[in-house]
Amino acid sequence: MDEDVLYHLDLGTKTHNLPDMFGDTKFVCVGGSPNRMKAFAQFMHKELEHEGDDNNLKDICAGTDRYCMYKVGPVLSVSHGMGIPSISIMLHELIKLLHHAKCCDVTIIRIGTSGGLGEQRVLLLPGRGDADEKQLRKGVEPGCVVITDMAVDSFFKPQFEQVILDSVVTRSTELDQDLASELLECSRGIKDFPTLMGHTMCTYDFYEGQGRLDGALCSFTSEKKLEYLKRAYDAGVRNIEMESTVFAAMCRLCGLKAAVVCVTLVNRLEGDQIKASHDVLAEYQQRPQQLIAMLIKKHLGLINDKKLLDNAVV
Amino acid sequence: MDEDVLYHLDLGTKTHNLPDMFGDTKFVCVGGSPNRMKAFAQFMHKELEHEGDDNNLKDICAGTDRYCMYKVGPVLSVSHGMGIPSISIMLHELIKLLHHAKCCDVTIIRIGTSGGLGEQRVLLLPGRGDADEKQLRKGVEPGCVVITDMAVDSFFKPQFEQVILDSVVTRSTELDQDLASELLECSRGIKDFPTLMGHTMCTYDFYEGQGRLDGALCSFTSEKKLEYLKRAYDAGVRNIEMESTVFAAMCRLCGLKAAVVCVTLVNRLEGDQIKASHDVLAEYQQRPQQLIAMLIKKHLGLINDKKLLDNAVV
Q1: Which pLDDT value is given to residue B310?
Q2: Which of A167, B223, B237, B244 would bridge B151 by S-S if both were Cys, CB 3.0 to 4.6 A apart?
Q3: Torsion sign across C-alpha atoms B135, B32, B157, B229
Q4: Best residue of A10, A13, A103, A163 to probe chain B, by most B CBs closer than 10 Å
C-alpha cells in the first residue's frame, strides 16, 4: 500500500511521521472510556515524574471523536469504546500503527470495568493480617480487581468466533500467563488491594447477554439468571465484560504480549444495577491504573522487586 | 423496581424527573459519533427555529462519556458509539427512559455512515433532468444516501442473533416500510440528493467482517473479497454498517417505529480506505441529517407535501 489511512484514529502514513511519533512505545494501555484513558495518561505522567503540566497532555486523535489517544514517554493510553466491534476497529488500526512505527517488544494491557461473580478463592498472601484476609474472603465484592488468566465466551469456551466474509473462524483467546502472574505479584505490593486471578467472560450484550433482569427486554426469570451465573462461576469465571475475547485473540495473532485487568463495579450474584456513588466508582476505576503503573515502573527499573516485597509485608 | 439507574446515560428515576424532561419526545435520532449528534441537534435547533444560541445546547448525559444526548423540542439526538454491543446498551437504557417518561408515538431513526456497494438500481424520479439521472446511474458513489428497507446479517439474512444467557435467539430485523417509503419521498424534495432504498448489511467487524484487505489481519484474497461483496450486492445489499440489525430488532420488539438512513463514505467495490477529505466527509454526513430534518418538519406541520412536490420538480 502506497498510503495507509488509519481512519478511526485520524492518523496516516503520509500525513504523520509514525516512527517519530510512536517508535519508542513499549506499553499500550487501552480502556473503554475516553475520560478514564486521559486520567490514566495524567496518572502515568506523575508516576514517571515527567516534567510539565499533566493537564496539557494532547489527544493525538483529537481530529476524531471515535477514540482518544495520549502518549507519556513509552506509554500509550488509548480508548476503545464499548463492545467487541468497537475495540476491534481500534486494535486493527493500533496494531498497524505499531507496525508502521517499527515498535518492538510491546506489551498491551486492557484496563476495564466489569461485573464480578461470587465468592473468591482466597489468596493467602504472605504477611497480610487477619483483617485483610477477612476482606479477601468476602468474595468478588465491588472494587475487587480481576486479572484474567483466560478470556471465555458466553458458553465458557476460551475462544473467539470471528466472522470473515461469510465464514466463521474460531480463534484462541489465550493470554500471556507470565504477564498475568507478574501482575498478580505486583498487586501484592499495594496495600488494601483486593485482587484475584480468574477467567473473564466476554459477552456481546450488557443486558440479556449477561443475564440482567433490568433491561428493556428480558425473557428469563431470576432463577434462570442465577443458575447461569453460578454455572459461569463453576466454570472459573470471576468477572464479565465485553471486550476481552477479541482483544486476546487479535493480540495473540499479532504477537503482542497481552493482559486484561478489570475492576468489578457490582457483584452480579447480588444484583444487576450499578448503584455505587460517582466518587466510589471513580476510586475503583483507579485501581487497575495503580497496578499497571507499578508494573510499568518495575519494567522501566524505577521500582525494584525488593521494594515490592517490602511493601507486601507492611 | 424501586429505582432504575440508567447507568450508561447517567440518568435515573430517582435522580431525574424523566416525564418532565422527556415526556414530549416524538423523534429520537441516533448515530455513532457524539460530535455528529451534537451537530444534528444544533441543526434541528435552527430548522425548528428555536430561540437562543444553538451553541448553548446542553449534553443531558454530560455526567458520563459513554454517550451524549441533546434535546431540541420534540427531538432527541443521542450518540451510540460503534458496533452492535455499544448501540444495544444505549437502546436498552433509551427505551427504558422513554417508558419511564411515558412517551408515546415515538419514531426512532438511526443516521449513520456506511460503505456503499456497487451499481444502483436507477430510481427514475419525476422531473429530474438528464444530468441528475446520469449522476444516479453512477451507482452507490460516496455521498449517496441509503434508506434501509431491510437490515441483514453477514449471511444476508434479515435476522439478528441475540445471545440470551447461553442460548441463541433469532429476532426479526424488519423495519417500518411506510416510514422508509416516506423518507424516500422526502429525499425527492431535496435537490442534488442521490438517494436509494436497499438492504443494509450489518457486521460485527469493520475489517475482516466487511472483507477489507487493509486490516492488521487479513486471510483472504482480493478475488474472494470481491466475490463476497458481489454476492451481497446480488442479495440486495446496497450498504454495510455495524448497528442496523440489533437496532431494527430491538425497536421492533419494543414497538418503536424505526428507520435507518446512512450515507456512504466509500464504494467498497472500488476500495477499502476512506480517503475523502475532512470537508467532503463532513458534507456527506450532513445529508442524512437534512433528510431527517425534512421528515420531522413535515410531521410537525412546518412543511407540507405540496412544498415537497414543488421542490422535487425544480
Answers
A1: 62
A2: B244
A3: positive
A4: A163
